[in-house]
């Protein structure tokens, strides 16, 4: 197993912008880092659960994956459009919408986030299972990847905290931009373009 390639893949996929990272960045400016961390914990738990599911159900999912991907694309696109609307509302009123944050939304977002689903269902079979077949080693890699995911989500919360004043000063513009990124993600995931 090429550990360098494995870590690069994990870091690039988890740290690059995606629906969850955009929601985290936007939420920090709106509700603060503590409330946003609830979302981060929900996203992390779901991320770990998806990794564990990938490790345990690899053979079954390989046969069913095309059907799952189509459903995830539709559900994920609809949920991302909903999140785009919620993020847009954050910048359109003084009080804004605080429904995007929270543990449950973080948890749900990961299960319908095609970026996360595709990553979790490819990283274990591609990097771990060809080289390690014991349950303990697979579990260890699930833990390692989950920690990398938590660090990625937390870094977006820290970034949002550092630039909170700037983000709040330009709240409407930032919310519109983040909503457009989410909308773009939804369109790309749906396969329309």
From TrEMBL:
GO CC, one annotated term: plasma membrane
Subcellular location(s) per record: Cell membrane
Cited InterPro entries: LeuE-type
A Pfam family the protein falls into: LysE
Transmembrane segments: 6-28, 40-61, 67-85, 106-127, 139-162, 174-192
Top-level taxonomic group: Bacteria
Key words, A-Z: Cell membrane, Membrane, Transmembrane, Transmembrane helix
A GO MF term: amino acid transmembrane transporter activity
GO biological process: cysteine export across plasma membrane
Membrane topology, as annotated: Multi-pass membrane protein
Protein name: LysE family translocator
Origin species: Paenibacillus taichungensis
